[in-house]
Amino acid sequence: MPLNVARIETAGRTLWAVDSPAGLRRLAGDYVTTRAFFENGGPEDAALALTEGEAVTADRVLSPVTRDARFVCQATNYASHVKEVGGDPAAIVSNVIFTKASSCIVPADADIIRPSHVRLLDYEIELGLVLKRGFDGPQAITDASLADWIGGLVIVNDVTARDVQISHMQFHKSKSYRSFGPTGPWLVLPAPAEMARWRELELVLAVDGEERQRSQAGDMIFKPAETLAELSGIMDLSAGDLIATGTPGGVALHPPSPMIQAIAGFLSPARRFKAFMAGQLKRSQYLRDRQVITATIRTRDGSIDLGQQRNLVRPPF
Q1: Dihedral of the CA atoms 304, 307, 313, 314 (nearest 10)?
Q2: Per CATH, the architecture of 71-314 is what?
Q3: 89, 110, 276, 296 — which has fewest CB within 10 A?
Q4: Span 237-248, average pLDDT
Q5: pTM of the predicted model over 0.85
Q6: Largest CA distance in the chain
Q7: pLDDT bucket at 259, cuts 50 / 70 / 90
């Protein structure tokens, strides 16, 4: 079984703890960041604390990924999602990469705050990969060596303001509002044999108890090793950085019919956006205030379980 580690708040202090049969056990080390956790022996500390750590209770479970981390994301990376937005998975030849502001990272039970101007608020459950070592140049990363680079697995909800995304024709702003990145609760530390089972992880998201998304991670188009190798040729990444690997089908966003798309081609950009909004506002799947989102990622046998997120949608105070 992999180790499930949490970053917790207790008695006014922030600590790391590992889940044991007897409850949470405190790690001996103080790790200010997720990067420090991986660079300074956190996984080994967690293994030791499993049997020797002091019992501890959590007043609150925090995000196991700290906000100093880079937050890199993949778009349209599940065949089911590509199909539902009107695309052909076989025609996807580019691994679309974007970033979210790390200031959107919040705990797994945090409220998702809908900006007052956002009318099309969408959810996207994603498998998050947390690096245990970084790179500053191209690397030959394969399935066989994936566990040498990925130290942890987390649940991520890539919350998105679709009206902002479509009107601005870019990802970063629409996905970076504060609270738009619930992460955790567990940082799951898989052994190499467990990391090799990533395809079996099943992602499930529900809104007010109604299932919206369900897929196994194996439906990804661009797999983790391929994506890491590509990223290593583009940018520097460090231990503790987070990669969100895309979302399955079932999101609220839905493409207009082919007839509407053809008609829209003759309209000005402003009128096209107005037509898009008119169609999307008819969809009941977009998130409304006071709705509750739950998200889980686990293997069907339960041997790898990333926990559960539970988020209330609310407007700003």
Answers
A1: -150
A2: Alpha-Beta Complex (3.90)
A3: 89
A4: 98
A5: yes
A6: 69
A7: very low
